[in-house]
Amino acid sequence: MTFRGSTTAKDRVFACLPYLLPIVEVFLFGGYFLKQFPILQLLFLPLFPLITIYYNVRYAGLIIFFALFIFVVRNEKISHFVRFNTMQAIMLDIVVFLFSILTDLVRLVPASGFALQTLYTTIFLGILVASLYSIVQSLIGRYAEIPALSEAVYMQVR
Q: Major location, coarse class (predicted)?
C-alpha cells in the first residue's frame, strides 16, 4: 500500500482491536489443535472473558459485525488506516463463516473424522496467523497485505 500519511499511536491501537473478532470467532476451530498442545491455551487465557461473553450473548457476532461495518468502515471521519484494518478483520471473519459452512458439509460425510480435524486445525492456524500478522503490521504502522483479501478490502474502503 502506498503511504497515505502518518499513523498515530492511537490509530495503531484502534487498528489492532477489530482483529479480536476473527480470533474469537475462530477459537472454536482450535479445539483439536489446543488438545494436542495444551500449553498454547495459556496464550488465549487473556481472551477467555471476551470469548465467554461473545459466545453467551445471542447474535453478538452479527451485532459486532454490522456495528464495525456501519460505524467504522463507512465513517469517512475515521482514518483510512483504521478503516482498512477494520474491513480486513471483517473479511477474515467472513472467511471463518464460509469455512464453518464447509466444515458442516464435511461433517455430513461418514468417517470424516481425520479430514475434519485437519480442516479445523488448518482453518484455526490460518486465520490466527493472518490475524496476528495483521496486528503486528498495524502496531508497526504498516498496512497488512494479505493476498486476495487486501485487494477486496481496498475495493470497499475508499
A: membrane
